[in-house]
Specification:
The chain contains eleven helices and ten strands. By secondary structure, the chain is an alpha/beta fold. It has a ten-stranded mixed beta sheet, sandwiched between helices. A hairpin with a 3-residue loop joins strand 8 and strand 9. Helix 1 (about 10-35) packs across helix 8, helix 3 runs parallel beside helix 4 (about 90-105) and helix 9 (about 215-235) packs across helix 10 (about 240-255). The longest helix is centred in the first third of the chain and has 25 residues, at about 10-35. The N and C termini lie close together (about 5 Å). The model has no long low-confidence stretch (mean pLDDT about 95).
């Protein structure tokens, strides 16, 4: 079945931005108050930055990959974030145990299919993980389309309907979809592409929001709005990638609802069957 995206009216867009900004702040307050723990299985390049991003919003993180303890860590965590970067045999075994434990204890989990477009072995492995029903899948254009084995424009929507997951396709324009609702977001800065592990940290942040919001679609939107607006603010304070990264953490920590309303560039769409 073919479909097209129907963009909602201007009034609906303005109302939606205000509502989304308010809900994002509610989630940020819950993160700071509850301090949920996110179990991250991520690549070594991303560990520090992912942990810092989560700490900036008040969440806690653990990064263990030891097969003798990963199940216990997932059991006591509020969400699991799985990243397929540097996918060696040890990491793969830890991922398998962690996901099964998350399912056993009804924990939400996020899949970040890092570089699945560059390796057929990795793509096959990540596609096998789709059977375990991730709550959210986040990747860039190449990763999402490779994971979906689909080069069409509506591959993210198809992947969402196929898996039951919310799919986040990051880029100059971020796309968040559950297969029926789609949000396009143009917040952010080009300097995000000059800092290692920005996408990986975004996936971890989605895990943080997912720990305090039962709706994966809303959690993904709130996380992307948070990091996108903070990125725009941090550009004003720095002179390049190094200072941008430092100020990004400060700007995330200091976000407020007025800033989210003023800077949020969100286009809400609905799927219309063709």
């Amino acid at each position: 079945m073919s479909s097209t995206l129907n963009i909602l009216s201007t009034n609906a867009q303005e109302s939606g931005i205000k509502q989304t900004a308010g809900q994002t702040m509610q989630s940020l307050r819950l993160l700071a108050h509850l301090g949920p723990r996110i179990q991250c299985i991520t690549n070594p390049v991303a560990m520090d930055f992912s942990a810092d991003i989560l700490l900036a919003v008040g969440a806690q993180t653990s990064m263990t990959m030891g097969m003798d303890e990963i199940a216990e860590f997932v059991t006591s965590a509020d969400c699991l974030s799985v990243n397929t970067g540097t996918l060696d045999s040890t990491r793969r075994s830890a991922i398998d145990i962690a996901i099964q434990t998350a399912l056993d204890f009804n924990k939400p989990w996020v899949l970040d299919p890092v570089s699945v477009h560059a390796s057929t072995t990795r793509r096959s492995y990540a596609q096998g993980l789709l059977e375990f029903r991730p709550s959210v899948i986040r990747g860039n254009y190449a990763e999402i389309h490779a994971l979906a084995s689909d080069e069409s424009a509506n591959a993210p929507q198809k992947l969402a309907r196929q898996t039951g997951a919310v799919v986040v396709q990051s880029g100059e324009t971020d796309l968040i979809t559950d297969g029926r609702r789609t949000v396009l977001m143009t917040n952010g800065s080009v300097l995000q592409t000059r800092v290692a592990a920005m996408g990986c940290a975004s996936s971890a942040l989605i895990g943080g929001f997912l720990a305090v919001n039962p709706d994966p679609f809303d959690a993904a939107v709130h996380a992307l709005l948070t990091i996108g607006v903070a990125a725009e603010e941090s550009v004003k304070l720095g002179t390049g990638p190094g200072s941008f990264k430092m100020h990004l953490l400060d700007c995330i920590y200091n976000l407020n609802e007025d800033l989210l309303v003023q800077r949020g560039r969100i286009v809400q769409c609905e799927e219309v069957a063709g």
